[in-house]
Amino acid sequence: MTLDPLPADADVIITDRLILRPWRPADAADALAIYGNPDVANQLSPALGPVADASTMRLVLDQWIAEGERTASPAGRWALQYRSDGRLVGGVILLPLPPGDEDLEFAWHLHPDFWGQGYAKEAGRAIAHRAIARGEEEIFAVVRPGNTRAVSVARQMGMEWVGETGKYYGITLQVYRLRYADLVATEAAEKQALA
Question: How many domains does the chain have?
């Protein structure tokens, strides 16, 4: 597969294994494999529901792309693709949490074939470093009760549990917070463990 070139001004983040880039209308089929999967859609907050077909997925992507053009940095939505071959494995967001838009939520959505391989943690840390470099003091993840995979990712990123709330999206969610000191400490501990 040949990788499509990225525009020079694209909001792109590159990690060891991934490229986080803006969504494109041409991503509809690959995005449908992610967001049309009930195992993914059932964990989204707010609930999106599985996307039914490619046409609907294109409409969702068009909405996300338009929203991205109005969103102030460091917030955004990114497609996650492999650096090596360009395969789309998921998506991530960093968006203001309702109702007050005061806190930034990091969320990740991977196709189940790519769960458990560290991609969400890798993307999340890249997003966190970018947000902090642009003036944010902390980012949050909100997790549906019982979503042990999401809790594991949040903890692996260095997030700390801060409580349970019903203020976001009108449903009860577990809240995790990541501050710069926690991010750096977690990364340093991992490096030391590998040494």
Answer: 1
